[in-house]
């Protein structure tokens, strides 16, 4: 899997999307979701003709339109393991803007997955970050709010 050198420049609040076109001036460019929760940066990417790979509610994202050599930006929330494998098989250029704190959680969950642990993920069901974190773990429970604090795994 190839990863671009402009990772940090896109995934930050003061990001500079124009760096993307300096690195990839002519390549077809896709993004799997909003880059970050920053409307200005997201709007600038749209203006630069970066197209979103959409998914229908509750369905897996489809990558049929992505071709070998295209550029695919992974947002600050990350991407699920299955999506990263699909993109790797397509031989695309990946610009990984995953937040380092999200990656740190992935690493912890992945370590716990090797033992006999169940991870408790505090997050919003279906949110990109929660989905990506859960994809690194075999046994997990997603807890959305304090009212769900009683949920536990009996396995």
From TrEMBL:
It comes from the Eukaryota. Gene3D superfamilies: 3.40.50.11270, 4-hydroxy-3-methylbut-2-enyl diphosphate reductase, catalytic domain. Its cofactor is [4Fe-4S] cluster. The keyword Signal does not apply. Signal peptide: none annotated. One of its GO terms (molecular function) is 4-hydroxy-3-methylbut-2-enyl diphosphate reductase activity. Pathway: Isoprenoid biosynthesis; isopentenyl diphosphate biosynthesis via DXP pathway; isopentenyl diphosphate from 1-deoxy-D-xylulose 5-phosphate: step 6/6; Isoprenoid biosynthesis; dimethylallyl diphosphate biosynthesis; dimethylallyl diphosphate from (2E)-4-hydroxy-3-methylbutenyl diphosphate: step 1/1. Keywords: 4Fe-4S, Iron, Iron-sulfur, Metal-binding, Oxidoreductase. Its EC number is 1.17.7.4. GO terms for biological process: dimethylallyl diphosphate biosynthetic process; isopentenyl diphosphate biosynthetic process, methylerythritol 4-phosphate pathway. InterPro entries: LytB/IspH. Pfam families: LYTB. Belongs to the IspH family. This is 4-hydroxy-3-methylbut-2-enyl diphosphate reductase.
């Amino acid at each position: 899997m190839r990863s671009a050198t402009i990772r940090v420049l896109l995934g930050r609040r003061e990001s500079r999307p124009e760096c993307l076109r300096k690195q990839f001036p002519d390549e077809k460019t896709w993004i799997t979701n909003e880059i970050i929760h920053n409307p200005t940066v997201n709007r600038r990417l749209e203006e630069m003709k970066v197209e979103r790979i959409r998914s229908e509610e509750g369905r897996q994202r489809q990558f049929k339109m992505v071709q070998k050599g295209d550029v695919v930006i992974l947002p600050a929330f990350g991407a699920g393991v299955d999506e990263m494998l699909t993109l790797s098989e397509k031989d695309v250029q990946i610009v990984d803007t995953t937040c380092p704190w999200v990656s740190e959680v992935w690493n912890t969950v992945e370590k716990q997955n090797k033992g006999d642990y169940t991870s408790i993920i505090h997050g919003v069901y279906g949110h990109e970050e929660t989905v990506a974190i859960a994809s690194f773990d075999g046994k997990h429970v997603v807890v959305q709010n304090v009212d769900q604090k009683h949920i536990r795994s009996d396995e």
